[in-house]
């Protein structure tokens, strides 16, 4: 059976999409833990903004300082994660899950969840997630 050039191109494009987008089994790229001294400014901002949905009152400045560490520790304690002040896969997963639950609650209350929905779209790939 002869395979057309178009079919070969589609197979290559599909393979690239699976690898780049992390589709299929496993993830193509692991996101590093985010904590004090983190150089991942976008990831830190996502953590700060995510925590702010729960009233932590952080400046979303990309600097993982003592206030962000304390907020992460409080979040970890509140949601049953190991308390270490670092956003690893467990805490990242908890943050994403709690924000998704918040979106549902807001919708049920007839309130807007635009900021939270945008956060999930923009940030769920920027923080570690188990």
Automatic annotation (TrEMBL):
Pfam families: PG_binding_1 (PF01471). InterPro entries: Peptidoglycan-bd-like (IPR002477), PGBD-like_sf (IPR036365), PGBDSf (IPR036366). It comes from the Bacteria. Residues 43-91 form the Peptidoglycan binding-like domain. Coiled coil: none annotated. This is Peptidoglycan-binding protein. It comes from Actinospica durhamensis.
């Amino acid at each position: 059976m002869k395979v057309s050039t178009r079919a070969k191109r589609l197979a290559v494009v599909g393979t690239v999409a699976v690898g780049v987008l992390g589709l299929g089994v496993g993830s193509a790229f692991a996101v590093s833990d985010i904590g004090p001294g983190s150089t991942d400014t976008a990831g830190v901002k996502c953590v700060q903004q995510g925590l702010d949905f729960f009233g932590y009152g952080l400046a979303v400045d990309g600097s993982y300082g003592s206030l962000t560490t304390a907020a992460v520790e409080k979040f970890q304690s509140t949601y049953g994660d190991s308390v270490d002040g670092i956003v690893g896969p467990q805490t990242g997963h908890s943050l994403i899950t709690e924000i998704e639950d918040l979106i549902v609650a807001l919708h049920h209350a007839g309130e807007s969840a635009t900021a939270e929905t945008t956060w999930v779209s923009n940030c769920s790939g920027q923080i570690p997630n188990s």
